[in-house]
């Protein structure tokens, strides 16, 4: 839940496209760090895993507004068509 709040608030500040770039870049970096150094340091592994897990909540919080603006809708309304 912390990821939903933190990353969606960050998205409001830096923009949705930039937020997805952060998800991709930092997420890839965290996966590489876990693969290379995860066995050496348990605290490092836990920190990287927590950041990665927080991105899942942030992605779910950031996706609906992104779908809405990319489909041309400016307010929420029921739609039968998906994103």
Backbone CA Rg: 15 Å
Average pLDDT, all residues: 78
Ends apart, CA distance between termini: 23 Å
Encode the helix/strand succession as letters: HHH
What class do helices, strands and sheet pairing give?
mainly alpha
What portion of the residues fall into strands of 2 or more residues?
Answer: under 5%
pLDDT under 50 segments (min length 5)? none
Please report the number of helical segments.
Answer: 3
Largest sheet: none
What oligomeric assembly is this protein in? single chain
Shape: elongated
Q: Helical percent range? A: over 70%
**Beta strand count:** 0
Q: Can you offer a commentary on this structure?
A:
This protein has 83 residues and is an all-alpha fold. It contains three helices and no strands. Helix 2 packs antiparallel against helix 3.
Task: Please sum up the structure shown.
By secondary structure, this protein is mainly alpha-helical. The protein is built from three helices and no strands. The chain has helices spanning 2-14, 16-37, 42-70.
Layout of secondary structure:
Elements: H1 2-14, H2 16-37, H3 42-70
Helix pairs in contact: 1-2, 1-3, 2-3
Q: How would you describe this structure in keywords?
A:
single chain; mainly alpha; 3 helices; 77% helix; elongated
């Amino acid at each position: 839940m912390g990821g939903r709040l933190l990353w969606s608030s960050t998205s409001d500040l830096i923009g949705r496209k930039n937020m997805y770039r952060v998800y991709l870049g930092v997420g890839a970096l965290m996966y590489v760090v876990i693969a290379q150094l995860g066995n050496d340091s348990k605290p490092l592994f836990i920190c990287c895993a927590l950041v990665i897990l927080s991105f899942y909540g942030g992605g779910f919080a950031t996706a609906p507004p992104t779908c809405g603006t990319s489909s041309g809708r400016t307010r929420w309304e029921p739609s039968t068509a998906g994103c």
